[in-house]
Fold:
Amino acid sequence: MLLDPGMDLNLRPMRYPVFYDMFRNAIKNTWTVEEVDLSGDIVDLENRLSSAERHLINRLVAFFATGDTIVSNNLVLSLYQHVNAPEARLYLARQLYEEGVHIQFYLTLLDTYIPDHEERAAAFTAVENIPSIRQKADFCFRWTDSMSDVRRLGSRDDRRQFLMNLISFGGAVEGLFFYAAFAYVYFLRSKGLLNGLASGTNWVFRDESCHMRFAFEVVATVRREEPELFDRDMERRVLEMMEEALGAEYRFAEDLLSEGVAGMSLRDMRSYLEYVADQRLQNLGMEPRYGTKNPFPFMDLQDVPELSNFFERRVSAYQTAVAGEVSFDESF
Structure:
């Protein structure tokens, strides 16, 4: 089974071809940071953004500065060694590469958006000096640390702990924290601002959506192989984890919107977070908790591949890198 201790090295016969398909599709979406033109963003930052919007974007890039580094560390420290299928580890290796590209993109953003050296240094240490970012980082570190003493998934408790780590990063960190960040970016784009940032975010959005799909496919595979792991206590723990993640992200929203950004209210952001949290619970085959509708029409037509739900085995319609806007009928 997928979580049996050991390190299977045989790609033939292939036990989980869906993971190999994900690996091959991810390669088709290869992109580089050098393709993203941020020159127009500099004009916006200097002449077009309000002070409230500048505060929003400075906080946002400060979160970006370490967000994907935390995800990369969790891939290496908590996930790779426990997924016992070489085709699945191929995808995890590809994901680690993509996280590296994201880190380079965010490094370039900070170098471009924050020319002051002291201010930039503060952004890179945001997890230490910005409380709203520190709370999100603490959430991540706690789930990574929860796997620090687990060397073999030899018991049901160990396997449940692995699944909780995977769900927390796939569903809450990449599936909620990052999706909230994308909403701010696309909100600014809807006002004609920071189009370079939005262009690069399109590629990140594609990658993150497929990272989520992989995580949910691993969970679905384990659920088919070991249904006894998914009891009421497991569902309760997932709900508590998502509620904590939503609370941390809402506090971050309070910080970002504290100066009053025209056109984006804190109430709407709360509704969006609840809407996305419900989507993640449904991805896991659970009932929605909030029943909230998406308040942001500008999020309906973004460049993102379709994400199969928990029970589907359909391969994502992930496309080779192309220029321009591409819409998929994904609901998020």
